[in-house]
Write a structure and sequence with these properties.
Blueprint (H helix, E strand, L loop, with lengths): L4 E4 L5 H10 L4 E7 L2 E7 L3 E3 L6 H8 L5 E6 L9 E3 H9 L3 H4 L3 H8 L7 E3 L2 E2 L4 E2 L11 H9 L7 E6 L9 H8 L2 E5 L13 E5 L10 H12 L7 E4 L5 H10 L3 E3 L7 H22 L9 H10 L5 H13 L4 E7 L3 E8 L9 E3 L3 H9 L3 E2 L6 H9 L9 E8 L2 E9 L9 H14 L3
Parallel strand pairs: 10-11, 10-12, 12-13, 13-14
Antiparallel strand pairs: 1-5, 2-3, 2-5, 4-6, 7-8, 9-16, 15-16, 15-20, 16-17, 18-19, 19-20
Helix pairs in contact: 1-3, 12-15
Length: about 450
């Protein structure tokens, strides 16, 4: 990375910019230009020299501006001589008006940020908090039992995608398919062709007609089912799995509004049937993903370019470390959880007593699924709820404080993980900048 990167401080405030450069352990020259003046700092692997006392007031005015521009030119710089501190600690000092630097309390600033013990390093000069990386392989233990208590006593704490299924022969849907889809966070709802769809609170509709099922004389009723699904509020996508040998009938299905046509196999067992179920699962997954609201890009192009350029040679574990170091500026403990097809798995964290044997949650827990499906953070939880207690156990705790944040990781509708974090009961700070950066970093760190 040798090109000059620039952008607006309106999109990335100086404190967030400094934390990002500190966490990525980069080197180069950063220049800030604002109405309050300009400020230049040389950065050596995420560290910088403490400004002279006579420059602190000017530096404080520039670094607290929310309007202006930044320009970062990566490259080697001269070794720092004299007092120095990480840019993350510099950002903390800016929050206090640089009083810590002026009064000579530099050591106190750094001690609060650095944790002794096992550490992960991005480079020789960049020290992260006490980050624990859990095994990359998913756990083998079954997770269904974790949902049983909530399903019986607090079903409102569960959130499953509701897949309505109209099937003249429902045998395929009772048992293996129903259980496999539940592990994905989908609930199969067997309904009749003539049932009221609008009141069923469905997310999508699957019509399954096995080979040999006759529709003769009932074409109008099946087309009416599709129209009712498409006229629901919001409209339901319809997957039609049935024999497709009649082109005229296929045309009518398309015209009525079917979202996807999938031919059924001629038999009802063996490898052919298994492959059909796999294909249908893939199609349903795509349709459900398409239902998630696609948010506008959270980061402007210039800031996205900066993030991607800083991380272009980093592997997944390094980016997770960068994300957690950024989180350490806002929280006393945090953990990254990966969203998988059949589980929510803890990947890394600091502050929480993470344990590999209890590192996964089943899909369907409302506290997590709402963030995954909406792409919006949850700030504040109910410590006494069953789903929150299950999340706490994965982090090694008996209970999470109410002031806990659950932040989506990823870009737009592609939520690939979540960041769970708190300040051990203290009130949370403004998280708007972190939410923006965490979304982008999570998309890089957890991409497959």
């Amino acid at each position: 990375m040798k090109r000059i990167l620039s952008g607006s401080l309106t999109h990335l405030a100086p404190s967030a910019l400094m934390r990002l450069l500190s966490a990525t352990a980069t080197s180069g020259v950063l220049e800030l230009v604002t109405d309050e003046g300009s400020f230049r700092m040389e950065i050596d692997h995420g560290w910088t020299a403490v400004p002279p006392a006579d420059q602190l007031d000017a530096a404080s005015r520039v670094l607290t501006c929310s309007e202006g521009a930044f320009r970062f030119e990566p490259g080697d710089v001269s070794p720092i001589e004299g007092p120095s501190l990480s840019l993350g600690a510099f950002a903390d000092a800016v929050r206090s008006g640089l009083r810590d630097l002026e009064s000579g309390h530099l050591a106190d600033v750094e001690v609060d940020r650095l944790v002794a013990g096992e550490i992960t390093e991005i480079s020789q000069s960049a020290t992260l908090p006490n980050i624990h990386l859990l095994p990359a392989e998913p756990p083998a233990n079954p997770l269904e039992d974790l949902l049983e208590g909530l399903a019986d006593h607090a079903p409102h704490e569960l959130l499953f995608a509701q897949v309505g299924v109209v099937a003249p022969d429902p045998r395929l849907w009772r048992g293996a398919v129903e259980n496999a889809w539940r592990r994905r966070g989908w609930e199969v709802r067997l309904i009749g062709r003539d049932d009221e769809i609008g009141a069923a609170d469905l997310d999508m509709l699957v019509v399954h007609q096995a080979a040999g099922v006759s529709r003769r004389g009932q074409e109008a009723a099946w087309l009416e089912l599709i129209r009712r699904a498409r006229e629901a509020a919001p409209p339901l996508p319809v997957v039609w799995a049935a024999p497709l040998g009649d082109p005229a009938w296929v045309h009518e299905l398309v015209a009525a509004g079917v979202s996807f046509l999938l031919p059924v196999p001629p038999g009802d067992g063996g490898e052919v049937q298994s492959r059909f179920v796999d294909d249908l699962t893939i199609v349903v997954d795509r349709q459900l993903r398409a239902l998630r609201p696609v948010s506008r890009p959270l980061l402007p192009a210039a800031v996205t370019e900066l993030v991607d350029a800083l991380l272009h040679e980093a592997d997944s574990e390094q980016v997770v470390g960068v994300l957690l170091q950024l989180a350490s500026g806002h929280f006393l403990r945090a953990a990254v959880l990966v969203v998988e097809e059949t589980a929510i798995r803890c990947r890394a964290g600091f502050g929480y007593p993470l344990a590999p044997r209890t590192q996964a949650l089943p899909r369907g827990l409302g506290i997590v699924e709402r963030v995954v499906r909406s792409g919006q953070p949850t700030i504040g939880v109910d410590p006494g709820s069953g789903s929150t207690q299950r999340l706490a156990r994965v982090l090694g705790l008996d209970e999470l404080p109410s002031a806990t944040a659950v932040i989506p990781l990823g870009v737009g509708a592609s939520v690939t993980g979540i960041l769970v974090a708190d300040r051990e009961g203290e009130a949370l700070r403004d998280l708007s900048e972190l939410v923006v950066l965490a979304g982008r970093l999570g998309g890089v760190a957890l991409r497959s």
